[in-house]
Structures are given as C-alpha cells and as structure tokens.
Design goal:
The protein is α+β, with helices and mostly antiparallel strands and 285 residues long. 37% of the residues lie in helices and 22% in strands.
Length: 285
C-alpha cells in the first residue's frame, strides 16, 4: 500500500462527502485497513481527529456559501449535516468567532481550513517489537455493542470503553488473566459510523451476570508490544506504525474476517512506562 497516495485520495474523497454523511468504510478501504484503525491513523498523520477535520472543512465551505450567495441559512445548515439553525450557529461561531448572520453581512474575520495534503516524510528506523502467535478459537466475556470511533468532550476513552470501565470492569476483577488480560476486540467494518466490539476478559470459567460472550475465531496473530500511555491521544501512533511500516514489509496481510485485539495488562495505563499490545489477525500476503 502506497500510504502517501492513499491518504491523498482519502482527502479528495472527503471533499465529496462534505454535503452528506461520510462513508467511513469507503475511506478506510482506500488505504486497506479497518475503520477503527483508520480513525486512529488519520488522527496521527493529520494531527487532528477525522471528526474534527470534517467539522472544520464543512464549516469552512459554509462560510464561503454564506458570503457568496443568497441560500437561506437553514438550507446551508442542513447541507452540512446540522439539523437546526441553532446547532449550526453554535458550531459556526465556535469555529469562526462570528454568527452565520454576521458572516453573511461581511462582519468579522473568518477562519478557513483548506483540504489536507500529505507529503512524504522519513519513517521507520525505530525498532518494533512483535511476535507471531497461533491460537485456537477462544471466548471473550464483557460488554458488547457498537462503539463510537472517537472520545467525546475531551474524554480519552471511547463511549463503549467509558461504559465498560464504570459498569463492567468492577465485576470482572478476579477474572483477568494472561495473556489477554483486559481485552477489546474490534470488527473490521463499521455500522452507521460505529464499530462493533466486545470489551472484557477471556472467558476461562464462570460468567458473571449480565456479561455478553462472543467467540474469537482461531487465527495467526501478529502481536505488537508498545510502551506508552493509552487512550485516544496515544494509541494512533501504534496503529500508524503497524499499517505504514510493518504490513508493507512483512509478507503478511490483515485477515479482515477476524476482529483485531487491544490487550491491556495490569499497571498504570496512563504511565509512560506502561506496556500494552495490539493483536492483528494475519494471513500470508
């Protein structure tokens, strides 16, 4: 995969999605990874989350529409995904510092964010720790559902992870065990802009009340070890290295039929010396 050209095709494709819902599966397909992985790689390479980038581009185009025509504000709001003039006005003022009405009247200075363009930079040269491991199918128990692809309101955890930590993690104390410890399993595709996942522990015995149980199929896994804090601010670097440095040179490719795993052993997950893992299901390329 030529990631430079792939990511530039992504930004071109995004321009055609500003006036409607974004097709995350199509964007991820342009660079050959899952939607979950794509969100993290995009934020690392672009320096801004995909959701925020889309918001900036839509509101930038809205500014041009307001200053260059007579289209009603409500029509512009709906075109760029806002269900009410009030919601559009709040988002517009947050970005530009003026209301849509003021922008139409030519008052104030607007902030325009042009489309991203990715250029080549030197990568690699730093060791990546990985091993190959083959496992039979195994069950995971915990919280299953559709997860948002980004944290909300500055939260370093996605919504499903936040719910898990508050309601399910206490019930699973005593059930966590090596090698999977606390594990999240994420399907390759997405549904309505969300990814299907289960977060919990490998099921090795009794299942606490209220836990879902799902089987992870047998697979060969490329297991990557990283030493860093976790959370949505830190994980993207890991996925970017796997997809742009390891896969293109490894002779392996991602098995899209099997979810990938994030594995979190005991320890301070926000500490700089914390070691955690990403398990990628692979087949020979």
């Amino acid at each position: 995969m030529d990631w430079l050209n792939g990511m530039n095709r992504v930004t071109e494709e995004i321009e055609g999605m500003l006036e409607g819902p974004a097709n995350y599966g199509r964007l991820a397909g342009l660079v050959g990874c899952s939607v979950y992985e794509f969100f993290r790689i995009f934020s690392f390479l672009a320096g801004v989350s995909l959701g925020e980038y889309l918001r900036r581009r839509r509101l930038s185009q809205a500014a041009f529409d307001l200053q260059g025509g007579e289209e009603p504000v409500i029509q512009i709001a709906l075109k760029y995904g806002y269900n009410s003039p009030g919601a559009f006005a709040r988002a517009f003022k947050e970005l530009h510092g003026v209301t849509p009405s003021q922008a139409r009247e030519g008052k104030g200075t607007l902030r325009i964010y042009p489309p991203l363009s990715f250029t080549r930079k030197v990568q690699g040269g730093t060791a990546m720790k990985f091993r190959l491991e083959t496992r039979e199918a195994f069950p995971v128990m915990g919280l299953a559902g559709l997860d948002g692809l980004e944290g909300q309101d500055g939260d370093l955890l996605t919504p499903l992870w936040r719910e898990f930590m508050e309601r399910y993690n206490p019930k699973l104390q005593g059930h966590y065990a090596a090698p999977l410890w606390q594990v999240g399993a994420y399907q390759f595709g997405c549904e309505g802009g969300k990814v299907r996942a289960i977060i919990g522990a490998e099921c090795l015995g009794d299942v606490p009340e209220g836990m879902a149980v799902e089987e992870i199929p047998a697979a060969t896994w490329a297991v990557f070890s990283f030493t860093s804090p976790t959370g949505t601010d830190f994980v993207p670097d890991a996925y970017t290295r796997i997809e742009t440095e390891w896969f293109p040179n490894s002779g392996w490719k991602r098995d899209e039929e099997i979810p990938h795993l994030e594995v979190f052993p005991p320890g301070d997950v926000w500490g700089g010396d914390y070691t955690w893992e990403i398990w990628m299901p692979v087949v020979k390329a």
